[in-house]
Amino acid sequence: MRALYHRLAMSSIRYPEIPAYFDFEAQKVTNELDLWERWVEVRETEDGFQEWLSGDFGGQPQEDENGNPIPGSAKPDGRKRREVLVWNKAELEAELEVELAT
Question: pTM of the full predicted structure?
Answer without folding.
Answer: 0.74
